[in-house]
Amino acid sequence: MLNRKKFIQNAALTAGAFFAGPSIIKAGEYFSPLKLTILHTNDTHSRLEPFPMDGGRNQGLGGIAGRAKLINDIREEEENVLLFDAGDIFQGTPYFNIYKGEPEIKAMSAMKYDATAIGNHDFDAGMENLATQLTKHANFPMLVSNYDFTGTPMENKTQPYKIFKKGKLKIGVFGVGIQGRGLIPDNLFGATKYLDPVQKANEMADKLKRNEGCDMIICLSHLGNLYKESNDVSDEVLAKETESIDLIIGGHTHTFLDNPIVYKNKKGDDTVVNQVGFAGIILGRLDFEFSKFSGKKLAKNHNISVSQK
Question: Given a cut of 90, is residue 240 above it in pLDDT?
Answer without folding.
Answer: yes
